[in-house]
Design a protein that fits this description.
The chain is built from 20 helices and six strands. By secondary structure, the protein is mainly alpha-helical.
Length: 523
Amino acid sequence: MISFHSNILNKNYIHIIIISLFSFLINFYYSKFGSFPIDTFLHYDSAVRILNNEYPVRDYWIVSGIVVDLIQSIFFKILGVNWFAYTFHSSLFNLVISIATYYFFLSLGLNKINSLIYTLCFATLAYTISGTPFVDHHASFFLLLATYLIIHALKTPKKNYLWFFVVILFFLSFLSKQVPFAYVFFSQSVILLYVFIKNKYFNIVKTIFISSAILTVFFLISLSYLNINFNDFYIQYIEYPKSIGEKRYFSLNNSLESFFNQYKFLIFPIMIIFIIKCNKIMNKKLDLHSKEIISFLIILTLGASLILHQLLTKNQIYIYFLIPVFFALLESNLINLTKNLKKYCSFTIIIFLIVITFKYHLRYNETRKFHELENVNLKNSIKSEIIDPSLGGLFWLNPMYKNAPKNEILILKSAISRLEKTKPNIMFFTNYLFLDSITTKNLNNPNKCFTKDGTCFPIKGNKFYKNYKDFIKNKIKRKKIKKIYFFRHEKIDYQIIEEYLSQNCYSYDTDDLFHIYEINCLK
């Protein structure tokens, strides 16, 4: 019996169980508090539409999130279309990335207890900040997994097959979101190309090339099978998002003080590690071209790329999960210290990290800051099964109706009832990205979301405005749309439809719930 228990401990089973339960449950628990519809449900209706044979690019304009929608549709297929299946997805992803991170910490030479503590801090700051599936998280975590695998593959260069999985992870990240993928891909590629040429790892290059070719061909065949035009994909997924990124890049205005205040706990361990590496190189204890330096540069480029992405994105900060990773790296660089000093430094680092983790846990998880609920009293929330039984488990509280959630729910229930009774085919412009899944009426939402700044679709003045205009017209014609609806209480500019249709092709009406455009022709 003693031998059996000892064997379990040696194989990390208990630690894996602890990490699995903690990482899954903490995300699952916090995901249920509050709802900022445009972010909370970003992949809800779109995943359901895939199950109904409506696909991104072809049936709704998309700028990111193809893989996240697809994965969520699988969870809906298996577990049913409900809130449980939605948060099970993100919670399971938090579990997987946490276990991978634990093994990465072990590979750094850290002991099991410290690796466990670092991992629990990581799980607290990883997917839990959002709680629900979100495109930036998926894209970043695929890149983090790829980075772990690259570092491992560089240590075992004869295992060429590992690079096939690296390519897959990069591919999944790209189809989740173009950035931060682009930043990480190009920066790490420069480093890896140097390593491959210097060490003559031509078999690895061959593996990467063949893997990339296979995935590209598979992707193109999938587009053709789903009747998705490649040119449409290229415009929606490559060119249009690039135009958004260029605008944000040139409007970037972030003071050094603000930058340091936001990322100080990430910059701090990186700077110390950098000093330690430089000192070892100067004292000729470390070769500049060694695998240790290359591995550090690989993970450093990931961190720098995610910081750059965070500076350019308009979302709340979500990359604090990198703090435990770089603190673990810092401890792994203390191997030259005496045993007692190393033990003291390790203890100090862990206590410091626990305090930092608790700080961000209170700020982001407890207040649901990522979903704009920081200044909202979550005790005012209402059980969402009142809206629809499939939303059971979610406590509804939209920051836009923080003091009157019952009023918002009454509006939604009245709207659902009205929409169900509407006979002609309609199109609904809304950021309530779950309504399509709980109505029998097809709402034919042309986008995944609607924002005033042109993030979700091209607005007037954007060079792809005409492409979107043609997309809207073709969808109206193909779906035989007779009426277009907007909620009165939402902040979507209902007059945008007037920019896409000729004035003599519609009539306008309004009532207590909706702005309504009745379509007469398409010009």
